[in-house]
Every structure is written in structure tokens, then in C-alpha cells.
Amino acid sequence: MRACLLVALLVLAAGARAAPDAAVLAREVGIDQNRGTRLPAALELRESDATRLRLDALFGARPVLLMFGYYLCPNLCRTDLAGLARAVQESGLEPGEDVEIAFVGIDPREGPDTAAAVQREYAAAFPEADVARWHFLTGEEDAVRALARRAGFRYLYDREIDQYAHAAGLYVVSPDRMVSSVLLGVRFDPDELAAAVEGAAREEVAAPVQQLLLLCFHYDPTTGRYSLRIVRALQVLGVATALGLLALVWRMQRRHGRRA
Q: GO molecular function: any one (predicted)?
């Protein structure tokens, strides 16, 4: 009985420690729709083959689809990448011809080898998206954070669980490095994606996203922030689960006592 109670209390304590603070998430995690902002030219990142890429070399000829995340993310990033690959396949956009596509890793511990492995995985899974011509990038933390900050992508590293908290979205950037539009979520409509690329090619600044979508990771797409209501609900759910476990142990102990 004591052992069961100890396990239940440990579960409750672990849940309390792991639960994200809503105020911190609201401040540190999100996507700011910095439309009209010009991205820096001189930052240097690394391609998946370890060659160095100055950011301005990515631009100039065509629009760029820019996504942030991390390669070993167990949650949102793979859903986001898959959503982009499907949309590219269905939109008719040709990477390297109509548009450049870049995924920038936010975890400085990940290098070109990790990026290359993920690129091969998605190239095999989405052959019509021509993922081999995408740019799977890594870089020094200062460079990546500077790029993310200018774009408006805010993220937070949680040491307790060794994961990054971040929102899901896609920046559509003009050939002159200007953020033309921001598409939020983990799924992208192929026609809307193609239209956004066309607008970026004309150096247009799109209107901000206004619609509220219900997505699997429960954040507000109008702000790119995690829903504080959902965060609190998950905290309550974790406590309720532990309390339910305690109640179950107590009932089992009572039954055992009566039989004795």
C-alpha cells in the first residue's frame, strides 16, 4: 500500500514539475506575423551536406518557403514538415524552379548529419515534392536565433524534458528577403500556398491571418501561441489523473481490508 501511494505521489509531483507555465509560454513561444520585415543577409548556416550557406545566397532568384523546428522533435515538427511536403506535391510548385524551400533547425546540438538523415526520410516519403532540392539547414545558436527573431518565430527550450516548445507555421519570403505572408498550422492548402508564393514573387505584403483553426496541438493560429486554456486544462488533467490513481489504490485497500 505504501509503495502504491509513493508511486502515485511521484506521478503527481512529476506532472506538476513537467507542466509548462502558461505565462512563460505566452511570452516566449509563438509566431509574430512580421510581414514586411526583411530578413538578414549575412547570417551563415550549414546545408545538410555540411557546406556553408550565406543566407543571401538562398534568395534573389525566387521566393523562399521558410520553416523553423528541430529535426529530432517528437511532436509538431514532423507533422509540419509532412504537411508542407503534401502541399508542395499537390500545388504543382517546383522546388529550385518556382520556389526555394528551407527548414531551419533550432537545436544547436543537431548538425548536418541529422539534417541529412531527415531529408532522406522525407525524400523517400514524398517523392513528388522533390525534397532532395530542399535546404535542410543547421547553424550556430546565435545565428539561428537572430534569423528566428527577425522573422518573428519565438521558441523556448525546456531543460526538464529536453524539448523545444514552439508553434507551427510557414514563412513565405520574397526574393528580396521580405516576409510576404505567414501561413499558420500543420496543414497547408495547396492553392493558398501557390497563391502566397505568387504574391511573394511580386514583393507583396499579405494581410495577417485572422481565422481561428482547431489544430491537433491546440494553439491559437491568429497569434501562433499555445492556448493557455488548453495548457491549464492539461495541468488539471494531470493532477486529476494522479488523484484518480490515489482513489483507486484507496478503494483496493479497503476491499482488501474487508476480505481480511
A: metal ion binding
158-180 pLDDT, tens digit per residue, is: 888 888 888 889 999 999 999 99
74 band by pLDDT with thresholds 50, 70 and 90: confident
Other beta carbons within 10 angstroms of residue 179's beta carbon come to 24
**Strand locations in the chain, DSSP E?**
30-31, 44-46, 52-54, 64-69, 100-105, 135-137, 153-154, 156-158, 163-165, 169-173, 179-184, 219-220, 225-226
Question: How many separate domains does the chain show?
Answer: 2
What number of other Cβ atoms are within 10 A of residue 251's Cβ? 10
Domain that holds residue 12: 1-28+227-260
For residue 62, the SS3 value is coil
Binding residues: 73, 77, 166
The residues pairing with 52 across neighbouring beta strands, listed in sequence order, are: 46
Based on the fold, state whether residues 52 and 8 are members of the same structural domain.
no
Which residues define the annotated binding site for Cu cation? 73, 77, 166
**97 and 192: one domain?**
yes
Q: Which residue has the higher pLDDT, 70 or 229?
A: 70
Indicate if 128 and 235 belong to the same structural domain.
no
Asked if 53 contacts 87 with a C-beta cutoff of 8 angstroms, the reply is no
